Amino acid sequence: MKSERALVAHLMRRAGFGATPSELDKLTMEKTYEEIVEDLVTPERFPALDQSFIDRYYGGEQVAVHVGKWLYRMANTQRPLEEKMSLFLHHVFPVAWGKGEHNPSIYNEIDMFRRIGLTDIRTILLELSHDPAMIFWLDNNENHKDEINENYGRELLELFSLGVGNYTEDDIKAASRAFTGWTFRQPLSLYPSGNYPTEFEFLADDHDYGEKIFLGETGTFDGGDIIDIIARQPATARFISRHLYNFFVEDEAQVPSWNTEPPRNAAAIEKMASVFTETGGQMRPVLREMFNSDFFKQAADFKKVKSPTELVVGVVRQTGEFNSPTPGIYQFALTTLDDSEVESTMAVMGQKLLNPPTVEGWHTGREWIDSGTLSERIRFVESQFEDVSKPGVREMVERVGSLHDDPAHLVSRCLDLLGGVRVSRHTYDSLVEYARGLASMKSGESAGVHNLLQMTASTVDYQFE
Amino acid sequence: MATKSADKTLVVVQLTGGNDFMNTIVPYTNGHYYDARNKVVMKQDEVLPISDTLAMNPNAAPFKRLYDEGKMAIIQGIGYPNSNRSHFRGMDIWHTAEPDRVGNEGWLGQAIRELDPNAENVLTGVNIGMGLPRAMAVNGVPVTSVGDLENYGVMTRLEQERLREKALEAFKGIYGQAIGTGPVADYIGQTGLDVLKGADMLADVAERYESDVEYADNQIAKNMRDIARVHFADLGTRIFYTSHGGYDTHANEMPTHPKLMNDVSGAISDFMDDLEEHGKADDVAVFVFTEFGRRMRDNGSGTDHGSGGGAYIFGKNVRGGLYSEYPSLDPSDWEHGEDLQHTIDFRGIYGSLLEQWLDVDAKPIVKGEYEQISPFAN
């Protein structure tokens, strides 16, 4: 063993979507923890998924098809951090297709997130400001030289970079003026099919070339200059670091309260922010620092509630049902293709991918849980693990062994097979008791090892990442 | 009032997407309406007149009946200031009653906290449908969200009784023991136990229900029927919530909107009949709202997001009729040059429901005092 199994399982859950037992076997055998981190932050070392292969099996331009493709990618990528960073950016820059008519721009945006997630803050904000989905979502197409619309300028500073308290209303106006003329066009008519992508367009005659004062600096700034200034601010380093900490390490308070609520671990944020500043806002060094730090390694227990996406993709990886592009994966996220009036399981759990509720994004952490979402989480794992014909479930059931084995061993193997799940002593004892109860059932009462898998994934502990 | 307010129940129905108010309560004699609406328009000879100037959508005949019986209050021109036409912001505002900042606490969640301050009954607030609406969400206020009444709870897929018993026992042990182990684990543990409590109380509700009313086979009708079933079981629910989706009619409004009108009006009138049959009609009011109305002009196929819209209150103890004023249709009065101006603030309507029906002080919930209406019979 070159690395500790429980720690690697924790890393793979946070930096990706969890590891299967055989993946954990291989990783811990071949690599040290630090080498695995290095692999994660250097995804180019591994082949990308073949887009044309995915397209062949998942055809169509509906948003549901594209959400399905994204879930397939999350479940099957050999570059888990790349996919996790695109989910991170979707949380921080939440654009919803529900606002409007430009369906392709929303899934093009996710492809863009995948491409830029591990670059630097300047590239990320610049691409974001050129992105038609974002431009439309925050009305920058209605931000004109003679009539500024502050929506994008405001959110760029408030939610995407500096955070409340680090700029003035005048800074918002200056930033908004700098982004006038940054719009998009629809090269081919949207109707009747509505599936032609849009592209960025700069309208020079709608741009305000006048002098602006932004965060104390004066010049005839355009959007790129504004982003340069933002990227240099210590507030940006802290804000982005806190976002990363919140997403990968430990649930923070909801974002709008960050200017009044101190961080859970101020020293951790300062450390990440200093790496951010030293490297000019590079994501990889900050992530490397974070994953290798003690605060990350110690944040394994009860620190972060799984998002619906993390729960669903994690379970789908375990059941193996979608290890190849089998039809229907989109149904977890969106049921509109089926003309169904029943919402998807992820919608019921509170996360419609590509359709976040507001520009604030999803409220995360404990706010993922209420009586409705919790019962849906449990209904979901029950349904996923009850079908022992799924390859992953079959394999787990075989590897756990007979119900008549020592119940403590059964439970330990279950926890390991489900991706190195850690549970409290209480939960462990209750699971052992349940395993004993299952074994005591008479023949004809069809209890099985899969019932133990269901229960393990239904615990309080399993709701944590 | 026929009974004391402690026995009153409020049912809230959300029409998701922004219902077209002008095509619901149609200004069928107004030239501005016909000037603005070319294709997405209700024909004068098809609508169901309720006055010299207004008529009901022809597919909402059950609403017309309720209106004629004096059981439907129409709140014209309801809205909020500075509409930015976003669904999400719009719904957020309706859910938290906070148009000026992003609120955290749902208005009904706050009302539930007042009605059941010690959180003694997990069914004081019940949502029927998928996902808890933000309107009902307040930290520490248990609200039960029921997607499928017959199968509410956990471990419902285990058909064998003994296995299910064992599973529930294990679940209860695991969730109960999580309490006290940390703030979030504690909360999740408590939520799990609340699910079990709610499931116990709801277990035989579906079976106990009998009615001569035959609801239609669509989602909103099923949801209204589930509300009736839970309500008739006398489990102490004071606030019910459900949603009906599909009102975001940017395109193809003429073929799709009639079904929405038909479904929602049928579901609500069946619900009212059901209440009457069970002798419960005096104590239930139904409040129907949507996040905004739609644009004055149509876009050839549908209508885009607008501002001022309409809301409705139904009930035997409701004083039927028209409230507030229909927004001016004169183009010189249009908000942003293209929307109906709202004529009454939604927070005043929330205030009317909270104070006059549920006997809950509205001020802390809507953050101030707003013009109320008097929609209830005394």
Write a concise synopsis of the structure shown.
Chain A is mainly alpha-helical and 465 residues long. Chain A has 23 helices and 4 strands. Chain A has a two-stranded antiparallel ribbon with strand order 1-2. In chain A, strands 3-4 form a two-stranded antiparallel sheet.
Average pLDDT level of chain B: 91
| CATH topology type of the largest domain in chain B | Alkaline Phosphatase, subunit A
Instruction: Say how many strands of chain A there are.
Output: 4
- Please state the overall shape of chain B, judged from the principal axes of the Cα atoms: globular
Query: Which consecutive residue ranges of chain A, at least 5 long each, have pLDDT under 50?
Result: none
Query: Please, what is the oligomeric state?
Result: heterodimer
Major sheet strand order of chain A: 1-2
CATH C-level of the largest domain in chain B: Alpha Beta
Head-to-tail CA distance between termini of chain A: 24 Å
Biggest sheet of chain B: strands, sense, closure? 9 strands, mixed
Rg over alpha carbons of chain B: 21 Å
Proportion of beta-strand residues of chain A: under 5%
Discrete helix count of chain B: 11
Strand count, sense and closure of the main sheet of chain A? 2 strands, antiparallel
Helix content percent band of chain B: 25-40%
Specify Rg of chain A, calculated over alpha carbons.
Answer: 23 Å
Tally of contiguous helical segments of chain A: 23
Keywords:
heterodimer; A: 465 residues; mainly alpha; 3 domains; two-stranded antiparallel ribbon; 52% helix; B: 378 residues; alpha/beta; Alkaline Phosphatase, subunit A; 2 domains; 3-stranded antiparallel beta sheet; 11 helices; 12 strands; 14% strand; disordered N terminus
